[in-house]
Design a protein that fits this description.
single chain, 213 residues, alpha/beta, eight-stranded parallel barrel, 10 helices, globular
C-alpha cells in the first residue's frame, strides 16, 4: 500500500490534482491512496467515485461556527475516507489528537497517526488508529530514505505498533518500498519524490513495482 501525500505543491493542486488522481486510478486501482488538501477532495471524488481519498489534516470540531477549520464531518461529506494526523509539518498536542480522533471515529473517518519515535508509537496505540506512520522528520524530502537510515529501528517499531505501520521519510524508488515491506511495514508514505518529479507517471510506476515482492 502506498499513501501519496500531495501536500500543496503547485504540481499537485487544482487541475493537476485531478489529472494525477486519474493516473493513480489507471495504474494502481486500490494500491495507492492519494492524500489531498481539503479543497480538492470533492472534485476528485465526484470524478472518480471509486477512488479512496484521504485528507491531509483535520481539526477537533463539529459543524457550526468554526470559520477556517477542517471538521472531520465535512471531510467525510466531501468524500474523504481517512485523514493524516500529526504530520511533522503540522504537529498536534496530545489533547488535540485525542479530540480530533474522537470526532473522526464519530463520523466514520479512518485516521493515521504519524510518529517520530517508539515512545510516540506506544502512546498512539492507546487511541487504536487505523494506521501508524513512522518517519524521521529530518529525512522528509531528503536524499536518505528512512528505511536505509533506520532499518533496525523500523523492525522494532513494527513489533511495538498495534496498528499496521506505514514507513515514510525519503521513500523514492521500488527498492525502498520493497525494503519497507520486508522489514514488516504495511506500506509507505511518499510525498515530495512524487509531487516534484519531472515524470510523475514514471515515478508512480516505479513505486508500484516495489509492492510486487
Amino acid at each position: 500500500m502506498i499513501f501519496l501525500n500531495f501536500k500543496i505543491y503547485r504540481q499537485t493542486c487544482g487541475e493537476n490534482t485531478l489529472k494525477l488522481c486519474r493516473l493513480i486510478r489507471q495504474l494502481a486501482d486500490k494500491l495507492v491512496i492519494p492524500c489531498l488538501q481539503a479543497v480538492d477532495i470533492y472534485q476528485v471524488k465526484q470524478a472518480l467515485p471509486d477512488l479512496e481519498i484521504w485528507a491531509q489534516h483535520a481539526d477537533p470540531v463539529e459543524s457550526g461556527k468554526f470559520t477556517g477549520w477542517q471538521a472531520p464531518a465535512s471531510l467525510k461529506f466531501a468524500g474523504a475516507s481517512g485523514v493524516l494526523l500529526n504530520h511533522a509539518e503540522h504537529l498536534l498536542d496530545w489533547s488535540t489528537i485525542i479530540k480530533t480522533t474522537a470526532f473522526c471515529r464519530k463520523v466514520g473517518l479512518k485516521f493515521m497517526l504519524m510518529a517520530s519515535d517508539l515512545a510516540m508509537i506506544t502512546k498512539f496505540n492507546t487511541l487504536k488508529p487505523d494506521f501508524i506512520a513512522f518517519e524521521d522528520p529530518r529525512l522528509i524530502g531528503g536524499p536518505v530514505a528512512m528505511i536505509d537510515a533506520h532499518e533496525a529501528l523500523i523492525k522494532k517499531a513494527v513489533q511495538v505498533a498495534q496498528a499496521p505501520l506505514i514507513i515514510g521519510g525519503g521513500i523514492r524508488n521500488k527498492l525502498h518500498v520493497q525494503k519497507a515491506l520486508a522489514a514488516g511495514g504495511a506500506g509507505v508514505l511518499v510525498a515530495s519524490e512524487f509531487a516534484k518529479s519531472d515524470n510523475q507517471e514514471q515515478t508512480l510506476k516505479e513505486l508500484i513495482l516495489g509492492l510486487d515482492r
